């Protein structure tokens, strides 16, 4: 068969088989026992030519309500922010996207320097001195933070607030089972972690407290008040953040966090049904040699010229094997590059401005709903929780909104039974006053 | 030689901007009126101040200091650095794929769900498994997921099996994944032919055996011919068989893990299914299982209602739970699906045939010049040993790899697997032409000659790259991990 | 060929030990061990005051290419660690039997008895040949 990705001609095939000393390609598979050979044609999807594949993919894509055609008020961990156009141009350079991990530093200085700059950006945002090259996503980064805390403190208990993203807590529970960690959840009051319950849950066997701010409900946690509760017991403070909010909000490193994690999706990464995104992971100096994943360091070559290498690698799984503390052997380099380009484009001014825009639009929107609709009084950033009247369901509301061109908020009932009939609404800088007003009108009309 | 490249922070000039944000069309709020002062940033993050041309030129220059498959031959063993088709990149950017939210109502993402459902079935067919989860984000993540499934399976039967057996030639992720999944690792020696030592395996299995993890073909590029005996030994002891799919590019449509006796499989879509490696990620590591393990799969999986609509199947009470936010690396899954549909089943079989022919051709042509520890037929990759060059001329495999850079190639994988001295592991893939293979072989032969005639030439390589060999010891002793601007 | 110094005592895990006055035993890694590790980049030292048992892991030594556990050749209490290794771990490469010592352990009971359980220089030479 001929195919546009396959260069082998009949003449090549004959010459190569001759060199190998085989009379057919089939002969090269003679070591596979006949009893496990697959006979016939696999029952898989059939081949398309290029034009018909484009048409097929366009058809599948066209059956999804995308954020170009619908105004999205959905957040809950994935946000519809403006993506500066230069990002696509940079990450489409195939020297970046068709490369593997930079194991050969002499021909990978571009990627290595890009990661070094990413680490620098994350350090600046989080206020911590050490960041790694990235993780799968924010949720797995949080689970890795728990593992790090347990390893560093030699303790087995993790205390996590229920205001942390429900999926992140689920992943934490799954991975804690593998590692033999005990996870205790602490409830919330008026949208933020119940500090009295938190204090009661912490003891001398607590490896870490895990909180998220802005939390899953969009509310800001009082990290200043949480910090002494865990540090006085010798455990670590792990804070998960929305990186875009750090244009406005205090760097968690300055509030005493030992580990800061989060998902870089708001920084120029497409929503893409939730993945791939990019987790980030920053720690204090004391934890530098315990940080999981890859890390890039600056050094010099034989001529004294500045260069970059993967470093602190001896801890990695391919060397430590069963003694490794994490099995992560990749990062999300291309998406870390997205985030780096985003921060380069936004710069010192833009990061502050985009955070302010989110604050303004969300507070305008929150004020447009009838009194009593918004439930929590805690300060918030760009998301907030609304309560529907008795008997109304979020599912029906969202179906109506979809019909009117809006993607509605997140139904809190599934993850928080006590919040059935509550919806989490996100308002980013992309939402115009007209869209916000229209969204509120549709909402009220439906009620 | 290129001059040092400035960091983006070093390009900063106060007052420059590269962004364009919407005007604020709503009343502004004073942040200190709605947020307690202690929560507000005390000083802005010191990000660079540059304009758009700076950004483009900076990253364009960085890209020129990087080497990808599009730059040239990249025979990195065990990584399957095949061509990354451009149509896959284009379709993944369609707004209906790139701009959809994971929590949108199911009725608003039917196209995406149909694609995922079809991909689940296609990967199940390809591997001979009954059901597939698309959630894991990478190969190692797939391994861990698979081991957690195995653990759940044994626990559901009231069996506390604690040990996972891995061959000494296995990928380093195998034992690391076993550890983080809460298992103890038992390492199995290979026999003289580089295969699983059946007698050692019989000794190793027992009532505490949870699973054997195996790559087939193995990391030496050899097919484990006695795979059925291996499966029988493990199954008779009550253990399960885990297939590390890193080397699947050798056997698509030719042999299926499910038919060899494997119970759990992960695939690396960034290897076998051509999705780009991205400089280290993102990838995707879907896991397929036999039906007895299906109840434990991470939730949700994509289901099909009798009326022809697709849905997230969350109703899986025995599930090990979620392993990844949302639904896995969807953008990668779109590319893998498009790849499958450029080839179809017969095309994928042809892919494996050519991958294997290319590897055998290279091995035979290089055999007169390098030590071939496992002669015979290889699959999609093979290993050489540089031990003769080392003992005769003091030229190590690392030096050969560095010298290859001057010829414009990415070197093969070196020093892996660990059980081959001065190992060089070559995987050409199917998308390389005979001319490319011949030119690379000629370069290897020339370097072997240089090692004999002028070893210093090889020991000091590379000469043509942006930087020369770098001081890794200082980097690790006195780490400089950010620019501290 | 790496140096094995006469008069010191050795463990099968490639540590050396010698009497350092009173109940104290000084401990380091052998020349052979540092050769195998290559460029040492970090030494994780035990906490002074902590108790160690012979044969148990007390810290780790990290090189560019690998991480190796360090085992206590004798039981007792750590009384001193070589803090200069925190800044200059490469001293272990340069002078493993001298300035590159790692820790001092105070043994309970007789020092000679504790050291007598270890290998002599000749036995260690046989081990690494």
Question: TL;DR?
Answer:
The complex is a heterotrimer of chains A (447), B (485) and C (129). Chain B is α/β, with parallel strands linked by helices and 485 residues long. Chain B has 2 domains: 258 residues, Aspartate Aminotransferase, domain 2; 119 residues, Aspartate Aminotransferase, domain 1.
Produce the secondary structure layout:
The complex is a heterotrimer of chains A (447), B (485) and C (129).
Chain A: H1 10-20, H2 50-62, E1 71-72, H3 85-91, H4 94-97, H5 109-126, E2 130-131, H6 138-153, E3 157-161, H7 166-179, E4 182-186, E5 188-189, E6 192-193, H8 195-201, E7 206-213, H9 223-231, E8 236-241, E9 259-263, E10 279-283, E11 296-300, E12 306-310, H10 317-320, H11 333-368, E13 383-387, H12 394-403, E14 406-407, E15 410-411, E16 422-426, H13 433-446
Parallel strand pairs in A: 1-14, 3-4, 3-7, 7-8, 8-9
Antiparallel strand pairs in A: 2-10, 5-6, 9-10, 11-12, 13-16, 15-16
Chain B: H1 31-34, H2 52-64, H3 86-92, H4 95-98, H5 110-127, E1 131-133, H6 139-156, E2 163-167, H7 173-180, E3 184-188, H8 198-204, E4 209-214, H9 227-236, E5 240-245, H10 257-260, E6 264-267, E7 287-289, E8 301-304, E9 310-313, H11 330-366, E10 382-385, H12 387-393, H13 397-406, E11 413-414, E12 423-426, H14 434-453, H15 455-459, H16 472-477
Parallel strand pairs in B: 2-3, 2-4, 4-5, 5-6
Antiparallel strand pairs in B: 1-7, 6-7, 8-9, 10-12, 11-12
Helix pairs in contact in B: 3-11, 5-11, 6-7, 11-14
Chain C: E1 9-10, E2 15-19, E3 24-29, H1 31-37, E4 40-44, E5 51-52, E6 57-63, E7 67-71, E8 76-81, H2 84-87, H3 91-94, E9 103-106, H4 111-116, H5 121-128
Antiparallel strand pairs in C: 1-2, 2-3, 3-9, 4-6, 5-8, 6-7, 8-9
């Amino acid at each position: 068969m001929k195919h546009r990705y396959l260069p082998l001609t009949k003449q090549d095939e004959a010459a190569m088989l001759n060199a190998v000393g085989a009379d057919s390609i089939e002969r090269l598979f003679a070591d596979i026992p006949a009893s496990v050979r697959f006979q016939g044609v696999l029952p898989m999807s059939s081949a398309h030519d290029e034009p018909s594949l484009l048409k097929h993919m366009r058809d599948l894509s066209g059956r999804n309500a995308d954020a170009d055609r619908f105004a999205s008020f959905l957040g809950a961990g994935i946000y519809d922010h403006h993506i500066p156009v230069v990002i696509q141009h940079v990450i489409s350079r195939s020297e970046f996207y068709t490369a593997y991990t930079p194991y050969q530093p002499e021909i990978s200085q571009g990627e290595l320097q890009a990661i070094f700059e990413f680490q620098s950006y994350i350090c600046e945002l989080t206020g911590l001195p050490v960041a790694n090259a990235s993780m799968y996503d924010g949720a797995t980064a949080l689970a890795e933070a728990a593992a790090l805390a347990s390893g560093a403190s030699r303790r087995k208990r993790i205390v996590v607030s229920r205001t942390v993203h429900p999926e992140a807590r689920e992943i934490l529970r799954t991975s804690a089972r593998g590692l033999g960690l005990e996870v205790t959840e602490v409830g919330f009051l008026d949208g933020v972690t119940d500090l009295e319950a938190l204090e009661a849950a912490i003891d001398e066997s607590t490896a870490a407290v895990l909180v998220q701010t802005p939390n899953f409900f969009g509310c800001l946690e009082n990290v200043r008040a949480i910090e002494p509760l865990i540090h006085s017991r010798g455990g670590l403070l792990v804070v998960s953040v929305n990186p875009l909010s750090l244009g406005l909000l205090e760097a968690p490193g300055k509030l005493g966090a030992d580990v800061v994690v989060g998902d870089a999706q708001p920084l120029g990464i497409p929503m893409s049904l939730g993945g791939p995104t990019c987790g980030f992971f920053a720690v204090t100096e004391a934890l530098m040699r315990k940080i999981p994943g890859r890390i890039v360091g600056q050094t010099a070559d034989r001529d004294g010229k500045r260069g970059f290498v993967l470093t602190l690698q001896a801890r990695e799984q391919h060397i430590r094997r069963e003694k490794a503390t994490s099995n992560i052997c990749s990062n999300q380099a291309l998406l870390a590059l997205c985030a780096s380009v985003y921060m380069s484009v936004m710069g010192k001014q833009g990061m502050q401005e985009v955070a302010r825009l989110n604050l303004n639009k969300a507070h305008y929107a929150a004020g447009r709903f009838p009194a009593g609709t918004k439930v929590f009084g805690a300060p918030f950033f760009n998301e907030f929780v609304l309560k529907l009247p008795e008997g109304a369901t979020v599912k029906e509301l969202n179906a109506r909104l979809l019909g009117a061109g809006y993607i509605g908020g997140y139904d809190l009932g599934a993850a928080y039974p006590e919040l059935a009939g509550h919806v989490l609404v996100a308002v980013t800088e992309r939402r115009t006053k007209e869209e916000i007003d229209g969204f509120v009108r549709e909402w009220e009309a439906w009620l | 030689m290129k001059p040092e490249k400035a960091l983006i922070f070093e390009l900063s000039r106060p007052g420059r901007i590269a962004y364009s944000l919407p005007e604020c069309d709503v009343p502004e709020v004073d942040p200190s009126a709605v947020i307690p002062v202690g929560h507000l940033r005390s000083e802005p993050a010191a990000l660079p101040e540059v304009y758009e041309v700076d950004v483009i030129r900076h990253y364009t220059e960085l890209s020129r200091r990087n080497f990808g498959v599009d730059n040239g031959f990249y025979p990195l063993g065990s990584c399957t650095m095949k061509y990354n088709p451009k149509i896959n990149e284009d379709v993944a950017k369609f707004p209906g794929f790139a701009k959809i939210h994971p929590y949108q109502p199911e009725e608003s993402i039917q196209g995406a769900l149909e694609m995922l459902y079809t991909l689940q079935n296609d990967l199940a067919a390809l591997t001979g498994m009954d059901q597939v989860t698309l959630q894991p984000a990478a190969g190692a993540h797939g391994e861990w997921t698979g081991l957690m499934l195995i653990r759940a399976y044994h626990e559901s039967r009231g069996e506390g099996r604690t040990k996972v057996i891995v061959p000494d030639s296995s990928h380093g992720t195998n034992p690391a994944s076993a550890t983080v999944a809460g298992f103890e690792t038992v390492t199995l020696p290979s026999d003289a032919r580089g295969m699983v030592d059946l007698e050692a395996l019989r000794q190793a299995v027992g009532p505490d055996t949870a699973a054997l993890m195996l790559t087939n073909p193995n990391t030496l590029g050899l097919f484990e011919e006695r795979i059925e005996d291996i499966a029988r030994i493990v199954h008779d002891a009550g253990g399960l068989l885990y297939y590390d799919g890193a080397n699947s590019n050798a056997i698509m449509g030719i042999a299926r893990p499910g038919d060899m006796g494997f119970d759990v499989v992960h695939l690396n879509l960034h290897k076998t299914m051509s999705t780009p490696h991205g400089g280290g990620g993102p990838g995707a590591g879907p896991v397929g299982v036999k039906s007895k393990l299906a109840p434990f799969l991470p939730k949700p999986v994509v289901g099909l209602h009798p009326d022809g609509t697709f849905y997230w199947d969350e109703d899986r009470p025995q599930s090990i739970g979620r392993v990844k936010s949302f639904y896995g690396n969807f953008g990668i899954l779109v590319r893998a699906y498009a790849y499958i549909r450029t080839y179809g089943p017969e095309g994928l079989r042809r892919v494996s045939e050519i991958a294997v022919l290319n590897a055998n051709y290279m091995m035979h042509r290089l055999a007169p010049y390098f030590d071939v520890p496992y002669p015979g037929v290889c699959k999609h990759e093979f290993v050489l040993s540089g031990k003769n060059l080392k003992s005769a001329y003091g030229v190590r495999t690392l030096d050969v790899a560095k010298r290859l850079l001057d010829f414009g190639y990415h070197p093969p994988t070196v020093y892996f697997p660990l059980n081959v001295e001065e190992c060089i592991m070559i995987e050409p893939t199917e998308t390389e032409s005979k001319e490319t293979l011949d030119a690379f072989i000629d370069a290897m032969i020339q370097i072997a000659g240089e090692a004999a005639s002028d070893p210093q030439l090889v020991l000091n390589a590379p000469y043509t790259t942006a930087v020369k060999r770098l001081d890794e010891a200082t980097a690790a002793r006195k780490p400089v991990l950010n620019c501290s601007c | 060929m790496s140096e094995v110094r006469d008069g010191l005592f050795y463990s099968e895990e490639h540590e050396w030990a010698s009497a350092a006055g009173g109940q104290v035993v000084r401990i380091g890694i052998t020349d052979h061990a540092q050769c195998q590790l290559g460029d040492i980049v970090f030494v994780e030292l035990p906490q002074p005051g902590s108790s160690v048992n012979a044969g148990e892991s007390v810290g780790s030594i990290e090189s560019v290419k690998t991480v190796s556990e360090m085992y206590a050749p004798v039981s007792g209490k750590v009384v001193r660690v070589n803090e200069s290794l925190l800044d200059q771990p490469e001293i272990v490469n340069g002078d493993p039997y001298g300035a590159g010592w790692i820790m001092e352990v105070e043994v309970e009971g007789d020092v000679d008895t504790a050291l007598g359980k270890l290998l002599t220089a000749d036995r260690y030479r046989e081990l690494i040949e």
